[in-house]
Each structure stands twice: as C-alpha cells, then as structure tokens.
Amino acid sequence: MIWYGLLVALIAAERIAELVVARRNERWSTARGATVSGQRHYPVMVALHTGLLLACPAEVWLADRPFLPALAWPMLAVLAAAQALRWWCIRTLGPRWNTRVIVVPGLPLVTSGPYRWRWLRHPNYVAVVAEGVALPLVHTAWLTATVFTVLNAALLTVRVRCENRALTASTAPVQA
The whole model's pTM is what? Predict the structure, then answer.
C-alpha cells in the first residue's frame, strides 16, 4: 500500500508541475490579448481531479483492495503512456497549453505532434481519461475508476464544447 501512496503522490506532484507550467503560459497568453472561457466549469474540474487523487488511496485502504499483478502492471503501463501523451501535448502546444481554456486570438490551430490527427482534436483528454481509469486500477480501486470516469465524461462534454467554441471563435477569419 505504501508504494501505491507514493505513486499517487508522484502523480500529484506531476499535477503541481502542470499548474506551474499553466500559470507561466497564462501570463504569456494574457500578454498577447488572450480570452478566457469556461470559468464556471474549471473549479469543478479541479475538484474532480483532486478527488481522484484522494479517492485512490482512500478506497484501497478503506475497502482493503488487493494488489493484483495481472491488472496492476498493464494499468501502470497505461498510466505511463498517459503521462507521456500529456507531456507530448504540453510540449507541442508550448506556451499555448493550459489547464484553463485560454486562447490567443488569431493564432492558427496547432497541427503538429499529437494534434496532427484530425480525428483526435483533443489528445490531452485521451491522456486524462486513460489516467482516470489506470491510476485507480493499479491497485484495484474499481469504484474510484468508475465514479471518476462517469463524472469526467460529463465534465469533458462541457469542457470540449467550451474549448471548441473558443478555438473556433479565435481562429475564424477576420471580416473586412
């Protein structure tokens, strides 16, 4: 159980690193006239993701979930792949990546890295979904995985619509 707590703590540290990057990128975007959207759903997203990090070890401890190597090792591989994809997205978007919906008007959509596939407009959310399933299941916290996945699906429905509207508005051609 201790090693699982350390794994969750590592993921929490990764999230803090994301927030540091996001804050820096927010300053960059704001200096270039960025618009911010989705202010109402952002606190819900923060609460949900914080809840995931708290619920994983809590369920394992309170429900005495067993460690099943046949489930744990594949889920650990999925978790590692999700982290790699997330940081590929962050690197590809550079200063335009953020945890908030912040768009600098007039900049073209990014079409490189994981954003080159037209059928996958939001690869960062693939990483979020994979992480939300894999992190709890590394130690059979199936209830946390299920609840997070359902709530995250509802949140991502709102988030993706918000992001798509913001990106469409900021990349629309200027009418003379």
Answer: 0.91
